[in-house]
Design brief:
770 residues; mainly alpha; Glycosyltransferase; two-stranded antiparallel sheet; 28 helices; 1% strand; DUF2264 domain-containing protein
Length: 770
Amino acid sequence: MNVKHSITTIILSVWSIVLFATPAQNAQTIRRAIDKVNHQWQQTNLAECRSFWDNAAYHTANMEVYKLTGNQDYLDYSLRWAEHNQWKGAKGNDRSKWKYSSYGESDNHVLFGDWQICFQTYADLYNILPDERRIRRAREVMEYQMSTPQNDYWWWADGLYMVMPVMTKLYKITGNNKYLDKLYQYIVVSDSIMLDTETGLYFRDGRYVYPNHKSTNGKKDFWARGDGWVLAGLAKVLADVPKNWEHRKFFEDKYIKLSDAVVALQQPEGYWTRSMADPGHAPGYETSGTAFFTYGLLWGINNGYLQSSKYLDAAEKAWGYLYKTALQKDGTIGYVQPIGEKAIPGQVVNRKSTSNFGTGAWLLAACEYVRYLEKEQNPDRAYWVGLAYKMAEPVLRNMAEGNLQKNMIVEVSPNWDGRNKKVTYMETFGRLMAGIAPWLSLPDDNSDEGIKRRQLRDWAIKSYKNAVNPKSPDYLLWSREGQALVDAAYLAESFIRGYNSLWLPLDSITKQRYIKEFTRLRHIDPPYTNWLLFSSTIESFLAKIGADCDVYRVNSAIRKMEEWYTGDGWYADGPDFAFDYYSSFVFHPMYLETLQNMKDSGRRTRIHYGKYYDRALKRTRKFAIVLERLISPEGTFPVFGRSMPYRMACMQPLALMAWQEKLPDGLTNGQVRAALTAVMHRMFDGKDNFNEGGYLTIGFCGSQPGIADWYTNNGSLYMTSLSFLPLGLPTTHPFWSDAPQPWTSQKAWSGQPFPKDHRWNDDILTRDLF
């Protein structure tokens, strides 16, 4: 038998096994390949090397591998590299000599993006273990650059990958909007230099713009690696910038148009040639551009931007090339075009052509493909989904049919105060929906989770209608009890958190009924406590939807929140401080949502809602740190204060920051998910938390009616769903797909490095606008 034919047959057979394996099996195969490739690179290349672009590009990928795998060796490798380089790029200190306008490897090319890409990894390392030393030089360089009048810092396509993510990462760390403003200004200038507006592709730089420069066959010469840098950089930008940023759509449109152009130029075998639009210019395999494209496309698929099947087809064909051709038997990555700036006719690129940046590009693509393949296989998410569904199903199924008040097994406190027990049903429905609204807002799919989610949402819409329909048996108790103000606020909160999926689909009659019921609650005079936020949440929601709003109720609550803030993330529940979890149950979430609603409404009053929001957000992030540190190595947290039967609601601000992608430095997605999951297991596994009808029982960790307060019924307990907010993140989001990491108490009690804590001061000042 022909040896070459035999080898080809074996390779094809192996690839067939990969193609027809289950997603989970494929993911495990790729995980093994990732470890093989990264281990091989690190064993044969010292970490102690310079921080120039080629090494730094590899480290951007190494950090992704660490997040996905949790392998401490990979983290240590990047730490050694950063320490070796003193957390700097180019090391020149005389600002009068700093350069950027031409290629340069000297210490004075501080403003040249190829020396700035290292700041991406330094920022990632800072987020894991905050230490100002890690980003001091990055901030010095970038903030000096932003202080200059020049906007032409990114004059070559590669620079968009090198520096755009630096800007967004430092924005997330500092909260300084100038990073976003300059990001937009810089790329507008870049577009004027090298963007081909017809295709959305980029020429490598101004020297290669058509028709002044043409490929061998007279075509536009788009260099694959150059456009790969751009697509990957745009994906990283979109992962970081705020959802409501004024220029986000500019970047989204650019990313999608570029993706379309990339897919159209893919070769049948899955790779892209070096000159994308002219395969004859420099024919043959090329891995670095192909890998960056694969990463960029898969990121868009994983995050809902690229939904057509053409994108997935292109990404899977590209992965086929990367896995069966680019990946060599010894774990090296071949067919990488050497360092350069263009497609060179006749240049030899073969299986022995490898590099640091090409290996990094391959690893980025592999990590993103694993996230795609494992999106329905995450055991932590499956556990959360199962628990959330168990909690919600009997409530929503019965209420959708108008049978909740008929069938719910109600339990009240042994020292119940005698109010109408029908308050139970609004407490049950409102609090449950406030917790699961983000989850029910995810797009439909045919996964097991998706089927459960769609069913719950269908039931929820019917339940919302019954809740305000006087003819329904499940019309809620909107009057005669002051408690209605409390749980109407949680209903309003559910609409805020699921606005597009839960409020907008309601028919006009149902919407008007809610507006009427919310408005009628103004007759209730809230006590001088957290109840002021129930009024402000309802009124600010009315403002958000354009209905009549009592601004006094909103603004007076805001002023009282400022009076009652005690510092370091804690609010007093009224004039006197109480050591309890009401900062979790009410203060942080509803204060933030009140302020955001007023921002959204565009109302102009004496209060600068934007500045108040920024200050409140900073406090919430500090409180998230407090909560995470309260979780013990065993997955428990201290039981103190009233309303402890609310269970996991104690962790709501931590869950909220995770869902809103605003976790503070030092709290990673992997560690927060691991910590919350551990608490859920301790609280719910094998405990008597549900009665025979499937409804929650009064207790903290099982049935413990003796800890109930005089106002507690088992509807109150559905506030525990407020810890499920991160289910609103897609299955491919790093919160779910990153490896579980030890949380702070685990690190501290096992002798590992952990972030030191400090007091957070209010540094955002507000004055009445008039």
